[in-house]
Design brief:
The chain has about 270 residues and is of the alpha/beta class. The chain is built from nine helices and twelve strands. Strand 4 and strand 5 form a beta hairpin. Bound molecules: adenosine-5'-diphosphate (ADP) and magnesium ion (MG).
Length: about 270
């Protein structure tokens, strides 16, 4: 049994406070959804928890089974059992997917015996073309192929807790269903998932135990699946009034993240 515990987390980027005190606990086998409008701080939350450089933690704590993740670089957080599926997976020219997987398993002290067969079986299970296993990571892949690729990596690496940042952005309905069903099966086997989205569709496949609504860097409501139905009906505006106060402006301006090498986490 593993638990990711986020407590009182506040953080800023380029001097602007984006996260205003996040409390969230995800344990093995649970699916927690975080929903919120553009610019609410969803990607910032995933980046700060995973350890992406460029964000300043102002207060609070993030632990995985008691280990202080905020003290560790991203790769050690991954070794500790945390995994982030990026909203915009990075393209890495010259590095093949199967090589990445072998290296990642070795870094976790795990065997690579039978890896090729395993990758092929996983690829088939989620409809990922097997020839892409031997191509440069994410280079020239479609949006759907990238997310199938991310899902395949998740299945092989078997982290304790995964954060999915808008798995549903940039892929078609078939790919969405295939990825969501695979991840749902992982949660049945004990994966804890923090699922960031602003659409209901993903949650129809990946049924959350708890839904949290994030507005202006703060969780303004938490509840069962009925919250998603309420959102569908009333929109985020119904929750926004609760989020007033001295909060970040939460503009919808792009964060500049994209599929470039600049976006890779530093070692
Ligand atoms: P969401 O994922 O909920 O749409 P983000 O976490 O991407 O929101 O962004 C929250 C706010 O933080 C936005 O106002 C965004 O412009 C700002 N922001 C995020 N990352 C950066 C960055 N690297 N540089 C400047 N501003 C950023
Ligand atoms: Mg985002």
């Amino acid at each position: 049994m593993s638990t990711l515990s986020i407590s009182g987390l506040t953080a800023s980027v380029v001097g602007k406070q984006i996260l205003n005190g996040i409390d969230l606990t995800v344990s093995s086998g649970e699916v927690h959804a975080v929903m919120g409008p553009n610019g609410a701080g969803k990607s910032t939350l995933s980046a700060v928890v995973m350890g992406k450089p460029g964000y300043e933690v102002l207060g609070g704590s993030v632990t995985l089974d008691g280990t202080d993740l905020l003290a560790l670089p991203a790769w050690q957080r991954a070794q500790a059992g945390l995994h982030l599926v990026s909203q915009y997976p990075s393209e890495v020219p010259g590095v093949k997917l199967d090589q990445v997987m072998a290296e990642a398993l070795r870094a976790r002290g795990r065997s690579t015996d039978g890896l090729e067969e395993w990758l092929e079986a996983e690829a088939e299970r989620i409809g990922f073309a097997p020839e892409l296993l031997h191509r440069a990571l994410n280079v020239d892949l479609s949006g759907g192929e990238k997310k199938r690729n991310e899902t395949l990596q998740l299945a092989v690496l078997q982290p304790r807790i995964a954060i999915l940042d808008e798995l549903d952005s940039g892929l078609d309905i078939d790919a969405l269903r295939d990825c969501a069903r695979r991840i749902e099966a992982m949660t049945d086997e004990g994966l804890g998932a923090l699922v960031i989205t602003h659409y209901n569709r993903l949650l129809e496949e990946l049924r959350p135990d708890v839904i949290h609504i994030l507005v202006k860097g703060r969780i303004v409501a938490s509840g069962g699946p009925e919250l998603a139905d309420q959102l569908e009906r009333d929109g985020y505006a119904a929750f926004s009034d609760d989020a007033d106060g001295e909060l970040a402006s939460g503009s919808a301006a792009g964060s500049g993240s994209g599929s470039s090498l600049d976006d890779l986490f530093r070692l």
